[in-house]
Amino acid sequence: MEGEAWHPPHWPVAWQRHATHAAEYLAELGDGARLDDVGLDVVHRGTTIGRWVARQRSGWDGLNAAQREQLRALGLTPPATVDTSAAEAEAAAVPVPDGPGPSAPASRRGRSRWGRRRPTGPGSDTSKSRAPTSRR
Fold it and tell me: For the whole model, what pTM was predicted?
C-alpha cells in the first residue's frame, strides 16, 4: 500500500484504516483471498470490512484514481456500468400491484395506528358514543 498508514496521501484517515484492516484480513486468509469474496457481515479488528467494501462498490465514482487502484490491488472488481435501456425494460416488466401493499400506512390497511382493527358495520360510528346534543 502506498502512503504511510498514519498519513494517507489524499483521503480520510478512516478510509485508510479500513483499507489497512481489509489488507490485514486478506493476508490472514492466505493466498488467493480477494475483497470480492468478503461477506457483508465480516468484521476484523473492530472494523466492519464487509460493509465498507459494499460502500466502496456503491460509491465507486466518488473515489479518486489512487483509491480505486488500491481497491483493485486488494481484489475488488469495479462495478459494471449499468445499461439504462436494459434496466428500464426490466423495470417495465415488473407488475405493479393494485391497492395498498404491506408498506402502506396502517390506516390505509384497515387498522388503527396501534395495530387494532377499526370497527366496521352498524353501530361502529364513533360519533354516537359522545353525549347527545339537543337540537331544537
Answer: 0.54
